[in-house]
TrEMBL record:
Keyword Membrane: yes
Location in or out of the cell: Endomembrane system
Keywords: Membrane, Transmembrane, Transmembrane helix
Domain EamA: from-to ranges: 6-145, 159-288
Chain segments annotated as transmembrane: 35-54, 100-119, 131-150, 156-176, 188-206, 218-237, 249-271, 277-295
Membrane topology, record value: Multi-pass membrane protein
One Pfam family of this chain: EamA
Protein name stated in the entry: Drug metabolite transporter (DMT) superfamily permease
Source superkingdom: Bacteria
The keyword Membrane belongs to this UniProt entry's keyword annotation: yes
Family the UniProt entry places it in: Belongs to the EamA transporter family.
């Protein structure tokens, strides 16, 4: 297998796992007594622990080195609290109040908020391609939440709110750890951030009785934490060793594609032509940004 094919395979499989994770969460929220805060806490704890252990084996020195400098560990904690937790919790809340395809697509509004942040920070107008991306993304969002009926929302307001917040969370998740990722391995940064983030949910997890789940549902919880988080993340990172970050970013469209197809086929989620067109427009902005911008490697959202 050529390096290019390895990279394409890793990116597609990794982002497909993320899409499957969203559908699994939708099933757990709608068919089983599972709530987002509990699932997010369990997911972060398991995936974070596994990533830190993995890093301890492959990159022993960096695992503890990040705690030797106060500037680094304070930024790491900020990343956990203001990047990791908002992106994770908002996404699952959007899935609970809406569905996996919509939540996953709205999450792709993250680049829009990054454009706005950079424009304000540098006090200059967005580039032409950024302005075009913003217009396309906003109209796509409008189509997605109204389902083509422009006089009313067809999606629950809570789903719209949390979906947009997931986009904001993704932007923060990308912006906050840039300096850390220039200094430390991404597995170390993300693993510790997940573990720190899980601590916020620990009181809730400890005080909440274990949900009464069947074996298949417990398998779903484990899938979300392992294949849907850790393995998806590692495959995504591995792809960056073989193909350009822009290519990997574009292939991340397999996440909403997988979420949409599986949600329709398995959970019978209604997803019509207007929603598909709106989703395609939002995803198109990610393609435009991936083609136009070559910057630091993106941090995987999931």
């Amino acid at each position: 297998m050529t390096d290019k094919r390895k990279g394409l395979t890793c990116a597609i499989v990794g982002t497909t796992f993320w899409g499957m994770s969203g559908v699994t969460a939708q099933y757990l929220f709608s068919k089983q007594p599972v709530e987002p805060g509990w699932l997010v806490g369990v997911r972060l704890a398991i995936a974070g622990l596994l990533l830190v252990i993995w890093s301890s084996v492959t990159n022993t020195k960096e695992v503890l080195a990040i705690w030797h400098h106060w500037q680094d560990w304070t930024l790491l904690i900020a990343f956990a609290l203001f990047g990791m937790i908002p992106s994770q919790y908002s996404y699952f809340m959007a899935v609970k109040h809406g569905n996996a395809p919509t939540a996953t697509i709205l999450q792709f509004l993250g680049p829009l908020f990054i454009i706005l942040y950079l424009a304000i920070r540098h006090w200059r107008l967005p580039r032409r391609i950024d302005a075009i991306s913003m217009v396309i993304a906003l109209f796509g969002t409008y189509l997605l939440v109204t389902k083509g009926q422009f006089d009313r929302l067809q999606l629950a307001p809570a789903a719209v709110f949390w979906g947009v917040m997931a986009g904001v969370g993704q932007a923060l998740y990308t912006l906050i750890p840039i300096r850390l990722l220039q200094k430390y391995d991404a597995k170390v940064v993300t693993g510790w951030a997940m573990l720190i983030g899980s601590l916020v949910f620990m009181p809730h997890i400890v005080m909440t009785p274990l949900p009464n789940l069947n074996l298949m549902s417990w398998g779903g919880v484990l899938f979300v934490a392992t294949f849907g988080t850790m393995f998806a993340y590692l495959l995504y990172l591995q792809s960056l060793n073989y193909i350009l970050p822009a290519t990997t970013g574009m292939l991340s469209s397999f996440e909403p594609f997988t979420a949409t197809v599986l949600s329709i086929l398995i959970l019978h989620t209604a997803f019509g032509l207007p929603e598909m067109l709106g989703g395609a427009m939002i995803l198109a902005t990610a393609f435009l940004q991936a083609i136009a911008v070559s910057g630091p490697k993106p941090v995987p959202q999931k």
